[in-house]
Amino acid sequence: MPTSDRTLTERDVSAKSHWIAVSAVAFGTFLLVTAEQLPIGLLAPVGSALSVSEGAAGLMVTVPSVVAAVAAPAVPVLVGRLDRRLLLIALMGLMTLANLASALAPDYQLLITARVLVGVAIGGFWAIAGGLAVRLAPPSHVPRATAIIFGGVGAANVFGVPIGTMIGGLANWRVAFGALSVLALAVLVALLIVLPPLTAAQPVGLRRLAGQFRNRGVRVGILATFLIVTGHFSAYTFIGPVLRDLSGIDEHLIGPLLFGFGMAGIAGNFIAGAAVSKRLHRTVLSIAVALGVTVLLYPVAGLTAAGGVTLLVVWGLAYGGVSTSLQTWMIKSAPQAVEEASALWVAVFNLSIGLGALAGGAIVDALPLQGVLWLAGVLLLAAGAAVRGARRNESLR
Protein backbone atom coordinates (compact mmCIF):
# COMPACT_ATOMS: atom_id res chain seq x y z
CA MET A 1 0.00 0.00 0.00
CA PRO A 2 1.27 3.52 -0.81
CA THR A 3 2.71 5.54 2.08
CA SER A 4 -0.01 8.20 1.67
CA ASP A 5 -2.73 5.60 2.20
CA ARG A 6 -1.01 4.29 5.34
CA THR A 7 -0.79 7.83 6.69
CA LEU A 8 -4.48 8.44 6.06
CA THR A 9 -5.38 5.21 7.81
CA GLU A 10 -3.27 5.96 10.87
CA ARG A 11 -4.55 9.51 11.18
CA ASP A 12 -8.23 9.03 10.41
CA VAL A 13 -9.15 5.77 12.08
CA SER A 14 -7.96 4.51 15.44
CA ALA A 15 -7.29 0.82 16.04
CA LYS A 16 -10.41 0.64 18.21
CA SER A 17 -12.83 2.16 15.73
CA HIS A 18 -11.85 1.07 12.22
CA TRP A 19 -13.90 -2.14 12.34
CA ILE A 20 -16.96 -0.13 13.39
CA ALA A 21 -16.50 2.09 10.34
CA VAL A 22 -16.01 -0.94 8.08
CA SER A 23 -19.18 -2.53 9.51
CA ALA A 24 -21.18 0.63 8.84
CA VAL A 25 -20.09 0.59 5.20
CA ALA A 26 -20.99 -3.13 5.03
CA PHE A 27 -24.46 -2.29 6.32
CA GLY A 28 -24.64 0.23 3.49
CA THR A 29 -23.80 -2.38 0.83
CA PHE A 30 -26.38 -4.70 2.42
CA LEU A 31 -29.03 -2.02 2.03
CA LEU A 32 -28.02 -1.15 -1.53
CA VAL A 33 -28.27 -4.72 -2.81
CA THR A 34 -31.53 -5.24 -0.93
CA ALA A 35 -32.96 -2.11 -2.54
CA GLU A 36 -31.76 -3.20 -5.98
CA GLN A 37 -33.25 -6.70 -5.81
CA LEU A 38 -36.29 -6.25 -3.54
CA PRO A 39 -38.75 -5.76 -6.45
CA ILE A 40 -38.01 -9.33 -7.63
CA GLY A 41 -40.38 -10.60 -4.95
CA LEU A 42 -42.93 -7.80 -5.41
CA LEU A 43 -43.58 -7.83 -9.17
CA ALA A 44 -47.11 -9.23 -8.93
CA PRO A 45 -48.47 -6.90 -6.21
CA VAL A 46 -46.82 -3.82 -7.75
CA GLY A 47 -48.11 -4.71 -11.22
CA SER A 48 -51.61 -5.25 -9.86
CA ALA A 49 -51.65 -2.04 -7.82
CA LEU A 50 -50.32 0.18 -10.63
CA SER A 51 -52.07 -1.63 -13.51
CA VAL A 52 -48.96 -2.73 -15.39
CA SER A 53 -47.74 -6.15 -16.49
CA GLU A 54 -45.21 -8.11 -14.44
CA GLY A 55 -42.80 -7.64 -17.36
CA ALA A 56 -43.12 -3.87 -17.08
CA ALA A 57 -42.82 -4.09 -13.30
CA GLY A 58 -39.56 -6.00 -13.87
CA LEU A 59 -38.01 -2.73 -15.04
CA MET A 60 -37.83 -1.85 -11.33
CA VAL A 61 -34.85 -4.23 -11.26
CA THR A 62 -33.37 -3.55 -14.70
CA VAL A 63 -33.43 0.25 -14.55
CA PRO A 64 -31.38 0.74 -11.35
CA SER A 65 -28.82 -1.85 -12.50
CA VAL A 66 -28.22 0.00 -15.77
CA VAL A 67 -28.21 3.42 -14.07
CA ALA A 68 -25.75 2.11 -11.45
CA ALA A 69 -23.40 1.00 -14.22
CA VAL A 70 -23.33 4.60 -15.53
CA ALA A 71 -23.26 6.25 -12.10
CA ALA A 72 -20.30 4.20 -10.82
CA PRO A 73 -17.69 6.07 -12.90
CA ALA A 74 -19.73 9.27 -13.33
CA VAL A 75 -20.30 10.15 -9.67
CA PRO A 76 -16.61 10.14 -8.62
CA VAL A 77 -15.76 12.26 -11.69
CA LEU A 78 -18.50 14.81 -11.02
CA VAL A 79 -17.78 15.29 -7.29
CA GLY A 80 -14.05 15.91 -7.74
CA ARG A 81 -12.24 16.29 -4.39
CA LEU A 82 -15.40 16.20 -2.26
CA ASP A 83 -14.84 14.44 1.06
CA ARG A 84 -15.86 10.80 0.50
CA ARG A 85 -17.51 10.74 3.92
CA LEU A 86 -19.87 13.52 2.86
CA LEU A 87 -20.44 11.83 -0.50
CA LEU A 88 -21.44 8.51 1.08
CA ILE A 89 -23.76 10.31 3.49
CA ALA A 90 -25.35 12.27 0.62
CA LEU A 91 -25.85 9.10 -1.45
CA MET A 92 -27.47 7.36 1.51
CA GLY A 93 -29.71 10.40 1.88
CA LEU A 94 -30.66 9.99 -1.78
CA MET A 95 -31.41 6.31 -1.11
CA THR A 96 -33.64 7.31 1.82
CA LEU A 97 -35.65 9.74 -0.32
CA ALA A 98 -35.80 7.41 -3.34
CA ASN A 99 -37.26 4.53 -1.32
CA LEU A 100 -39.72 6.87 0.37
CA ALA A 101 -40.76 8.10 -3.09
CA SER A 102 -41.14 4.48 -4.21
CA ALA A 103 -43.40 3.76 -1.25
CA LEU A 104 -45.57 6.80 -1.98
CA ALA A 105 -45.53 6.67 -5.82
CA PRO A 106 -49.10 7.12 -7.13
CA ASP A 107 -48.31 5.71 -10.56
CA TYR A 108 -45.82 3.57 -12.48
CA GLN A 109 -43.94 6.48 -14.08
CA LEU A 110 -43.06 8.07 -10.73
CA LEU A 111 -42.07 4.68 -9.34
CA ILE A 112 -39.60 4.11 -12.19
CA THR A 113 -38.25 7.64 -11.70
CA ALA A 114 -37.63 6.84 -8.05
CA ARG A 115 -35.84 3.63 -9.11
CA VAL A 116 -33.55 5.72 -11.33
CA LEU A 117 -32.47 7.62 -8.20
CA VAL A 118 -31.91 4.29 -6.45
CA GLY A 119 -29.55 3.35 -9.30
CA VAL A 120 -27.56 6.57 -8.87
CA ALA A 121 -27.16 5.87 -5.16
CA ILE A 122 -26.15 2.26 -5.76
CA GLY A 123 -23.53 3.04 -8.40
CA GLY A 124 -22.00 5.99 -6.57
CA PHE A 125 -21.93 4.40 -3.12
CA TRP A 126 -20.59 1.05 -4.32
CA ALA A 127 -17.86 2.68 -6.42
CA ILE A 128 -16.53 4.54 -3.39
CA ALA A 129 -17.18 1.82 -0.79
CA GLY A 130 -15.38 -0.83 -2.84
CA GLY A 131 -12.03 0.86 -2.32
CA LEU A 132 -12.54 2.08 1.25
CA ALA A 133 -10.89 -0.91 2.88
CA VAL A 134 -7.47 0.63 2.19
CA ARG A 135 -8.59 3.78 4.02
CA LEU A 136 -10.46 2.22 6.93
CA ALA A 137 -8.22 -0.68 7.97
CA PRO A 138 -4.52 -1.27 8.64
CA PRO A 139 -2.63 -2.65 5.62
CA SER A 140 -2.49 -6.20 6.96
CA HIS A 141 -6.28 -6.25 7.47
CA VAL A 142 -7.35 -4.86 4.07
CA PRO A 143 -8.46 -8.27 2.63
CA ARG A 144 -10.52 -8.97 5.75
CA ALA A 145 -12.07 -5.50 5.67
CA THR A 146 -12.91 -5.94 1.98
CA ALA A 147 -14.59 -9.27 2.80
CA ILE A 148 -16.69 -7.60 5.51
CA ILE A 149 -17.76 -4.76 3.22
CA PHE A 150 -18.83 -7.21 0.53
CA GLY A 151 -20.36 -9.52 3.11
CA GLY A 152 -23.25 -7.09 2.95
CA VAL A 153 -23.93 -8.25 -0.61
CA GLY A 154 -24.31 -11.90 0.40
CA ALA A 155 -26.32 -10.99 3.48
CA ALA A 156 -28.77 -9.03 1.32
CA ASN A 157 -29.34 -12.05 -0.91
CA VAL A 158 -29.93 -14.29 2.13
CA PHE A 159 -31.85 -12.00 4.47
CA GLY A 160 -32.69 -8.66 2.87
CA VAL A 161 -34.69 -9.70 -0.18
CA PRO A 162 -36.64 -12.57 1.48
CA ILE A 163 -37.51 -10.48 4.55
CA GLY A 164 -38.55 -7.52 2.39
CA THR A 165 -40.67 -9.82 0.22
CA MET A 166 -42.30 -11.27 3.35
CA ILE A 167 -43.11 -7.76 4.60
CA GLY A 168 -44.65 -6.98 1.23
CA GLY A 169 -46.73 -10.16 1.39
CA LEU A 170 -47.92 -9.75 4.98
CA ALA A 171 -48.54 -6.00 4.84
CA ASN A 172 -48.15 -4.17 1.53
CA TRP A 173 -45.44 -3.59 -1.07
CA ARG A 174 -45.42 0.09 -0.11
CA VAL A 175 -44.58 -0.87 3.48
CA ALA A 176 -41.57 -2.88 2.18
CA PHE A 177 -40.19 0.17 0.36
CA GLY A 178 -40.97 2.35 3.37
CA ALA A 179 -38.99 0.00 5.62
CA LEU A 180 -36.02 0.34 3.25
CA SER A 181 -36.26 4.12 3.57
CA VAL A 182 -36.12 3.88 7.37
CA LEU A 183 -33.12 1.54 7.22
CA ALA A 184 -31.35 3.88 4.79
CA LEU A 185 -31.84 6.74 7.24
CA ALA A 186 -30.36 4.56 9.99
CA VAL A 187 -27.30 3.83 7.83
CA LEU A 188 -26.95 7.55 7.08
CA VAL A 189 -26.83 8.33 10.81
CA ALA A 190 -24.33 5.52 11.42
CA LEU A 191 -22.03 6.78 8.65
CA LEU A 192 -22.30 10.31 10.00
CA ILE A 193 -21.17 9.13 13.44
CA VAL A 194 -18.44 6.57 12.71
CA LEU A 195 -16.78 7.55 9.44
CA PRO A 196 -13.71 9.79 9.64
CA PRO A 197 -13.02 12.54 7.07
CA LEU A 198 -11.97 10.85 3.81
CA THR A 199 -10.62 13.61 1.61
CA ALA A 200 -9.78 12.50 -1.91
CA ALA A 201 -6.03 12.70 -2.46
CA GLN A 202 -6.58 13.29 -6.16
CA PRO A 203 -9.88 13.90 -8.00
CA VAL A 204 -11.12 11.20 -10.34
CA GLY A 205 -11.02 12.49 -13.92
CA LEU A 206 -11.96 11.03 -17.27
CA ARG A 207 -8.30 10.90 -18.27
CA ARG A 208 -7.37 8.96 -15.12
CA LEU A 209 -10.30 6.61 -15.67
CA ALA A 210 -9.32 5.94 -19.27
CA GLY A 211 -5.70 5.57 -18.21
CA GLN A 212 -6.57 2.49 -16.16
CA PHE A 213 -7.00 0.51 -19.37
CA ARG A 214 -3.23 0.78 -19.89
CA ASN A 215 -2.82 -1.27 -16.72
CA ARG A 216 -2.80 -4.96 -17.69
CA GLY A 217 -3.93 -6.08 -14.22
CA VAL A 218 -6.95 -3.75 -14.41
CA ARG A 219 -7.79 -4.95 -17.92
CA VAL A 220 -7.69 -8.57 -16.84
CA GLY A 221 -9.77 -7.79 -13.74
CA ILE A 222 -12.43 -6.03 -15.81
CA LEU A 223 -12.51 -8.84 -18.39
CA ALA A 224 -12.71 -11.51 -15.68
CA THR A 225 -15.52 -9.59 -13.95
CA PHE A 226 -17.48 -9.26 -17.19
CA LEU A 227 -17.14 -12.98 -18.01
CA ILE A 228 -17.79 -14.27 -14.48
CA VAL A 229 -20.77 -12.05 -13.65
CA THR A 230 -22.35 -12.39 -17.11
CA GLY A 231 -21.87 -16.16 -17.00
CA HIS A 232 -23.21 -16.49 -13.48
CA PHE A 233 -26.36 -14.45 -14.03
CA SER A 234 -27.11 -15.97 -17.43
CA ALA A 235 -27.57 -19.30 -15.60
CA TYR A 236 -28.55 -18.25 -12.07
CA THR A 237 -31.48 -16.18 -13.35
CA PHE A 238 -33.01 -19.51 -14.39
CA ILE A 239 -31.88 -21.60 -11.42
CA GLY A 240 -35.52 -22.24 -10.47
CA PRO A 241 -36.34 -24.02 -13.75
CA VAL A 242 -32.96 -25.81 -13.63
CA LEU A 243 -33.68 -27.25 -10.17
CA ARG A 244 -37.26 -28.09 -11.07
CA ASP A 245 -36.91 -29.48 -14.58
CA LEU A 246 -33.39 -30.97 -14.54
CA SER A 247 -32.99 -32.03 -10.91
CA GLY A 248 -36.64 -32.93 -10.32
CA ILE A 249 -36.94 -30.80 -7.15
CA ASP A 250 -40.38 -29.76 -5.98
CA GLU A 251 -41.06 -26.08 -6.65
CA HIS A 252 -41.94 -25.45 -2.99
CA LEU A 253 -38.39 -26.42 -1.99
CA ILE A 254 -36.65 -23.98 -4.35
CA GLY A 255 -37.04 -21.00 -1.98
CA PRO A 256 -35.36 -22.75 0.97
CA LEU A 257 -32.65 -24.09 -1.33
CA LEU A 258 -31.87 -20.58 -2.57
CA PHE A 259 -31.61 -19.51 1.06
CA GLY A 260 -29.01 -22.28 1.41
CA PHE A 261 -27.27 -20.94 -1.70
CA GLY A 262 -27.02 -17.54 -0.03
CA MET A 263 -25.72 -18.98 3.22
CA ALA A 264 -23.03 -20.85 1.29
CA GLY A 265 -22.23 -17.56 -0.46
CA ILE A 266 -21.65 -15.77 2.84
CA ALA A 267 -19.26 -18.53 3.89
CA GLY A 268 -17.50 -18.34 0.52
CA ASN A 269 -17.09 -14.58 0.88
CA PHE A 270 -15.11 -14.89 4.11
CA ILE A 271 -13.15 -17.93 2.94
CA ALA A 272 -12.07 -15.93 -0.10
CA GLY A 273 -11.27 -12.93 2.12
CA ALA A 274 -8.79 -15.06 4.04
CA ALA A 275 -7.38 -16.71 0.92
CA VAL A 276 -6.71 -13.57 -1.16
CA SER A 277 -4.32 -12.19 1.43
CA LYS A 278 -2.05 -15.17 0.76
CA ARG A 279 -2.72 -16.27 -2.82
CA LEU A 280 -4.78 -13.71 -4.76
CA HIS A 281 -4.12 -15.04 -8.26
CA ARG A 282 -4.74 -18.65 -7.26
CA THR A 283 -7.94 -17.71 -5.41
CA VAL A 284 -9.49 -15.85 -8.35
CA LEU A 285 -8.46 -18.61 -10.76
CA SER A 286 -9.91 -21.30 -8.47
CA ILE A 287 -13.21 -19.44 -8.17
CA ALA A 288 -13.59 -19.04 -11.95
CA VAL A 289 -12.74 -22.67 -12.66
CA ALA A 290 -14.94 -23.97 -9.82
CA LEU A 291 -17.91 -21.98 -11.10
CA GLY A 292 -17.37 -23.11 -14.69
CA VAL A 293 -17.00 -26.79 -13.80
CA THR A 294 -19.99 -26.70 -11.42
CA VAL A 295 -22.31 -25.17 -14.00
CA LEU A 296 -21.15 -27.54 -16.74
CA LEU A 297 -21.73 -30.54 -14.47
CA TYR A 298 -25.42 -29.74 -13.98
CA PRO A 299 -26.65 -31.42 -17.20
CA VAL A 300 -24.65 -34.54 -16.22
CA ALA A 301 -24.46 -34.78 -12.42
CA GLY A 302 -27.42 -32.57 -11.51
CA LEU A 303 -30.16 -34.84 -12.86
CA THR A 304 -31.14 -36.02 -9.38
CA ALA A 305 -32.27 -34.04 -6.37
CA ALA A 306 -29.13 -34.96 -4.42
CA GLY A 307 -26.86 -34.00 -7.30
CA GLY A 308 -28.69 -30.74 -7.95
CA VAL A 309 -28.57 -29.66 -4.30
CA THR A 310 -24.89 -30.57 -3.95
CA LEU A 311 -23.95 -28.57 -7.05
CA LEU A 312 -26.08 -25.64 -5.85
CA VAL A 313 -24.18 -25.47 -2.55
CA VAL A 314 -20.81 -25.63 -4.34
CA TRP A 315 -22.01 -22.93 -6.73
CA GLY A 316 -23.02 -20.66 -3.85
CA LEU A 317 -19.75 -21.27 -2.03
CA ALA A 318 -17.69 -20.37 -5.11
CA TYR A 319 -19.74 -17.37 -6.21
CA GLY A 320 -19.70 -15.95 -2.68
CA GLY A 321 -15.99 -15.20 -3.12
CA VAL A 322 -16.35 -13.33 -6.41
CA SER A 323 -16.88 -9.77 -5.12
CA THR A 324 -14.17 -9.89 -2.46
CA SER A 325 -11.53 -11.52 -4.65
CA LEU A 326 -12.12 -9.37 -7.74
CA GLN A 327 -12.26 -6.13 -5.72
CA THR A 328 -8.97 -7.10 -4.09
CA TRP A 329 -7.57 -7.84 -7.56
CA MET A 330 -8.49 -4.31 -8.67
CA ILE A 331 -6.99 -2.73 -5.53
CA LYS A 332 -3.69 -4.56 -5.96
CA SER A 333 -3.60 -3.88 -9.70
CA ALA A 334 -3.98 -0.12 -9.20
CA PRO A 335 -2.79 0.78 -5.67
CA GLN A 336 -2.28 4.42 -6.70
CA ALA A 337 -5.73 4.70 -8.34
CA VAL A 338 -8.07 2.62 -6.20
CA GLU A 339 -11.15 4.81 -6.76
CA GLU A 340 -10.75 4.83 -10.53
CA ALA A 341 -10.23 1.07 -10.74
CA SER A 342 -13.12 0.43 -8.34
CA ALA A 343 -15.46 2.72 -10.29
CA LEU A 344 -14.74 0.88 -13.54
CA TRP A 345 -15.14 -2.47 -11.81
CA VAL A 346 -18.53 -1.55 -10.29
CA ALA A 347 -19.75 -0.26 -13.66
CA VAL A 348 -18.83 -3.51 -15.41
CA PHE A 349 -20.23 -5.62 -12.56
CA ASN A 350 -23.66 -3.98 -12.67
CA LEU A 351 -23.82 -3.92 -16.46
CA SER A 352 -22.92 -7.61 -16.55
CA ILE A 353 -25.83 -8.48 -14.27
CA GLY A 354 -28.28 -7.12 -16.83
CA LEU A 355 -26.42 -8.56 -19.83
CA GLY A 356 -26.23 -11.99 -18.20
CA ALA A 357 -29.96 -12.14 -17.54
CA LEU A 358 -30.67 -10.87 -21.06
CA ALA A 359 -28.36 -13.41 -22.72
CA GLY A 360 -29.73 -16.23 -20.59
CA GLY A 361 -33.29 -15.33 -21.52
CA ALA A 362 -32.44 -15.36 -25.22
CA ILE A 363 -30.81 -18.78 -24.91
CA VAL A 364 -33.68 -20.25 -22.89
CA ASP A 365 -36.20 -19.04 -25.47
CA ALA A 366 -34.25 -20.54 -28.38
CA LEU A 367 -32.67 -23.72 -26.96
CA PRO A 368 -33.32 -26.42 -24.33
CA LEU A 369 -32.66 -25.38 -20.72
CA GLN A 370 -29.23 -27.03 -20.80
CA GLY A 371 -28.14 -24.41 -23.34
CA VAL A 372 -27.97 -21.65 -20.75
CA LEU A 373 -25.73 -23.85 -18.57
CA TRP A 374 -23.34 -24.47 -21.48
CA LEU A 375 -23.21 -20.73 -22.21
CA ALA A 376 -22.46 -19.91 -18.58
CA GLY A 377 -19.83 -22.63 -18.32
CA VAL A 378 -17.97 -21.43 -21.41
CA LEU A 379 -17.95 -17.82 -20.17
CA LEU A 380 -16.75 -18.83 -16.71
CA LEU A 381 -13.93 -21.02 -18.01
CA ALA A 382 -12.94 -18.22 -20.40
CA ALA A 383 -12.61 -16.00 -17.32
CA GLY A 384 -10.33 -18.61 -15.80
CA ALA A 385 -8.17 -18.60 -18.92
CA ALA A 386 -7.90 -14.79 -18.78
CA VAL A 387 -6.90 -14.86 -15.11
CA ARG A 388 -4.37 -17.63 -15.67
CA GLY A 389 -2.66 -15.48 -18.30
CA ALA A 390 -1.95 -12.80 -15.67
CA ARG A 391 0.04 -15.14 -13.40
CA ARG A 392 3.37 -13.37 -14.10
CA ASN A 393 2.21 -10.13 -12.47
CA GLU A 394 4.02 -10.10 -9.12
CA SER A 395 1.50 -7.82 -7.40
CA LEU A 396 -1.32 -10.27 -8.08
CA ARG A 397 0.27 -13.42 -6.66
Description of the molecule:
The chain is mainly alpha-helical. The chain folds into 2 domains: 3-194, MFS general substrate transporter like domains (Growth Hormone, Chain: A, Up-down Bundle); 209-392, Growth Hormone, Chain: A, CATH 1.20.1250.20. It has 19 helices and no strands. The protein has helices at 3-12, 18-37, 43-50, 54-57, 59-79, 84-104, 108-129, 133-136, 142-170, 173-194, 206-211, 216-236, 239-246, 254-276, 280-301, 305-319, 322-333, 338-366, 370-388. Helix 2 packs antiparallel against helix 7 (108-129). The longest helix has 29 residues, at 142-170. The radius of gyration is 20 Å and the shape is globular. It starts with a helix and ends in a 9-residue tail after the last helix. The model is unreliable at 1-13 (pLDDT under 50).
Which characteristics define this entry?
397 residues, mainly alpha, Growth Hormone, Chain: A, 80% helix, disordered N terminus
Task: Just name the CATH architecture of the largest domain.
Answer: Up-down Bundle
Q: Give the total of domains.
A: 2
Secondary structure class reads mainly alpha
What would the CATH topology of the largest domain be? Growth Hormone, Chain: A
**Count of alpha and pi helical runs:** 19
Per the principal axes of the C-alpha atoms, what is the gross shape? globular
Q: Which percent range fits the helix content? A: over 70%
* Topology order in helix (H) and strand (E) letters: HHHHHHHHHHHHHHHHHHH
**Overall residue-averaged pLDDT value:** 83
> pLDDT under 50 segments (min length 5)?
1-13
Euclidean distance between termini CA atoms: 15 Å
Strand content: under 5%
Query: How much is the radius of gyration in Å?
Result: 20 Å
Q: How many β-strand stretches? A: 0
Biggest beta sheet attributes: none
CATH superfamily annotation of the largest domain: MFS general substrate transporter like domains
CATH classification class of the largest domain: Mainly Alpha
